[in-house]
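Design a sequence for this backbone.
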């Protein structure tokens, strides 16, 4: 298994064309079968990777947040909702989705989430490998492949499992 973020980034760049071919290769395989392979591999690989020694997602991503979560996070930061929103929340143009605009996340300390039990749902769900239709979420999967050791190793194991060449 590869855990080094530098090597994963290099391999992600080097594998760009191969991964395009892999996407095409997966298309004729039934969606539910691909999802079940990913879940099986994720169940094996994710517990073997210690997120508290990585924390990369909390350094480079800006997770979506709901308005209820903004209120909750503002309380935890001992700020009013308006103050928290102004300092730490952005909004996507087009979709209107709110997100935490801080890199690294203000709640990250020593690679650990200091509000783990109160973290936003999108953080708890990351890296989203349990979500269905993985082969139709390829762009997001590849973004995560380049920066998350769990995703990188699951995708590489999926190549082996499906005998991709
Ligand atoms: S989910 Fe991925 S990027 Fe985030 S801490 Fe765990 S291994 Fe690192
Ligand atoms: S709230 Fe916690 S889990 Fe979410 S990005 Fe911040 S540190 Fe990471």
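Sequence:
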């Amino acid at each position: 298994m590869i855990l080094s973020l530098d090597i994963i980034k290099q391999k992600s760049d080097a594998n760009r064309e191969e991964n395009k071919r892999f996407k095409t290769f997966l298309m004729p395989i039934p969606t539910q079968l691909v999802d079940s392979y990913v879940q099986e591999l994720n169940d094996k690989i994710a517990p073997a990777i210690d997120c508290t020694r990585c924390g990369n997602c909390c350094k480079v991503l800006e997770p979506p947040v709901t308005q209820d979560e903004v209120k909750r996070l503002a309380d935890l930061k001992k700020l009013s909702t308006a103050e928290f929103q102004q300092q730490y929340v952005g909004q996507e143009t087009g979709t209107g989705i709110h997100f935490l605009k801080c890199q690294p996340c203000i709640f990250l300390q020593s690679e650990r989430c200091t509000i783990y039990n109160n973290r936003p749902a999108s953080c708890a769900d990351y890296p989203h490998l349990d979500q269905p239709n993985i082969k139709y979420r390829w762009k997001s999967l590849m973004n995560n492949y380049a920066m998350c050791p769990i995703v990188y190793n699951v995708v590489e194991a999926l190549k082996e499992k499906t005998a991709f060449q």
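Residues 49, 51, 54-57, 126-127, 148-150 surround iron/sulfur cluster (ligand 1) (CB under 6 Å).
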